[in-house]
Amino acid sequence: MAKGIVVILTGASSxxxxxxxxxxxxxxxxxxxxxxxxxxRPQKEGEVDGKDYxxxxxxxxxxxxxxxxxxxxxxxxxYYYGTPKAQVEFLINKGKNVLIEVExxxxxxxxxxxxxxxxxxxxxxxxxxxxxQINRLYGDDQATVERRLSKAxxxxxxxxxxxxxxxxNDTEKAVAQIKSVVMEEMKKRAAE
Length: 192
Ligand code: 5GP
What we know:
Blueprint: E1 6-11, H1 17-25, E2 32-34, E3 37-39, E4 53-55, H2 58-66, E5 70-76, E6 79-84, H3 85-93, E7 97-101, H4 104-113, E8 118-123, H5 127-138, H6 142-156, E9 164-167, H7 171-191
Parallel strand pairs: 1-7, 1-8, 2-7, 3-4, 8-9
Antiparallel strand pairs: 3-6, 5-6
Helix pairs in contact: 1-7, 5-6
The structure holds guanosine-5'-monophosphate.
Guanosine-5'-monophosphate binds at residues 13, 17, 37, 41, 72, 74, 76, 81-83, 101-103, 105-106.
């Protein structure tokens, strides 16, 4: 059986990856399973443990790193985030396609561990739009706004390293662009 395809969705912080992710996951043609990350970040209202993230302690996260249970991990805004290896390997070995959403630093490690993965870098419509979005989300906490913005700018410098850059002017268009690349790859792999 052919292995499943790994789709990596990354990009600058606060760029709207979440809406793209949810639309891709809901698309029956793509048959994507979501890779649930481990994080030390506190659970937010409305988030479900084991669905949105596995919320773990620092001690548990450190153990996962030590035991080499993560395909990649990174620190973001004072918390750790990582992609559990067993879950992704189980799914792709069963021929299932997997979607991994990570911040930009994690992608390099993922590509080393999963060289056949297809990575998409989501860019904001413009820096101004990104600033507005960060202000809308975190405007009551100026330190977070500054941190998110400077991190997003640094991440955008990584964009040229990606083959697939997607401008998020319009979620539907961004999704259509990603879908066509993934469908093409699915056809190619089915023919191999
Ligand atoms: P949030 O706290 O807003 O849910 O996520 C913060 C950032 O962490 C987002 O850019 C998200 O894409 C990223 N992220 C989520 N899971 C992972 C992961 O497993 N690894 C890495 N490197 N980043 C992640």
